[in-house]
From TrEMBL:
One matching Pfam family: Aminotran_4
Lineage of producing organism: Eukaryota, Viridiplantae, Streptophyta, Embryophyta, Tracheophyta
Protein name: Aminotransferase
Gene Ontology terms: biological process: amino acid biosynthetic process; carboxylic acid biosynthetic process
Family: Belongs to the class-IV pyridoxal-phosphate-dependent aminotransferase family.
SUPFAM superfamilies per record: D-aminoacid aminotransferase-like PLP-dependent enzymes
Amino acid sequence: MATLSSFLHKPISDSSFNAKILCSTFDSSLVRPNLAFQGVGFRSFRLRIKGKSFQDTWVVQNSDQTGVSNECTNISDVPLLSSSEVIERLKAYRVNRKGKQNYLAMYSSVFGGITTDPATMIIPMDDHMVHRGHGVFDTAAIMDGYLYELDQHIDRFLSSASMAKISLPFEREHIRSILIQTVSASKCRQGSLRYWLSVGPGDFQLSPSGCHQSSLYAIVIQDLTPPDHKGIKVVTSTIPIKSPQFATMKNVNYLPNVLSKMEAEEKGGFAAIWLDDDGYIAEGPNMNVAFVSKENELLMPYFDKILSGCTAKRVLALADGLVKKGILAGIRVGNVTVEEGKRAKEMMLIGSGILVRPVLQWDEQVIGEGKEGPVALALLDLILGDMKTGPVSVRVPVPY
Ligand SMILES: Cc1ncc(COP(=O)(O)O)c(C=O)c1O
């Protein structure tokens, strides 16, 4: 007969009960079926069979318990790993991942340096950006080895950090230098740089008072796909818009934006357009929106309740050239009604990810002639030209 001795000194429950053995790696017929002991759940036992000692884990169930699944759960399915095994598994995980983006370098102020191994591009679980969303982020495109509008994006990044009450781990110039060095280490000439400021790692509380140091992370993503100028369809978002306090800061709480994008995709569209609380046109989930009115004016909604898009602001500056050439009659930033938007000659989405993308249909309404309009295409050319040959104020060279 086999004898059992439990390794658990402290039972989970105090009353003893007749336990039924549901599952073990040993043949439980060797053991008396109704053993009385305290507690419930997994138990590790020393098993003696014919004088030999074995250790085994058993799933035991109180005879009163009906809620516990009868399915066998073998805890040896979940291995306890050493640090080097974790790294190995992270590398193997990346080999099998579905994503198409290449991450060429990551900086983390937690480890105080840059890594080019995607398996090690990780952040601590107790970072409050992970479990509380207490973080902000921004981007900048990398074009031909230059960072486009880096300083404009850093300005917005720091303003977002201030609104989220995240103190800076370093001075602005040091942050800027880290970002450029990360791109340099990545050797990436085409793609994007993304960076985050978090209130930092510390604990799993809500208050950041246990976080002793805010953290900076940055990643370089290669993207060799040429900009797409093909017109797309948009829908009106039914996901509520973020309140101005949260929409004007680029914080990591993008669930409404994600759901809005998913809603558009479910309806065969590219993006969903938010209206503000007064019913005026606001923005898309990660882009601004603009129109060309019947009077040939470029219309863009005010930025006071939405994200102040760096690309949209640059488009406004570049569009001056189209006014001078007589292609546009003027430029107006203000409230834009849905009616005005839907009967516009042209509609377009604007952002650092898509640059300028013509919109051919909004919900059931075909926009203009249902073709990519001349102003949207001219603005896309202007932005691309600016990215390639613009002034030093918008092009920061990366020293490779
Ligand atoms: C909500 C939202 N609006 C607008 C934009 C466009 O901003 P930018 O041109 O600076 O990329 C973004 C960019 O990600 C965004 O997330």
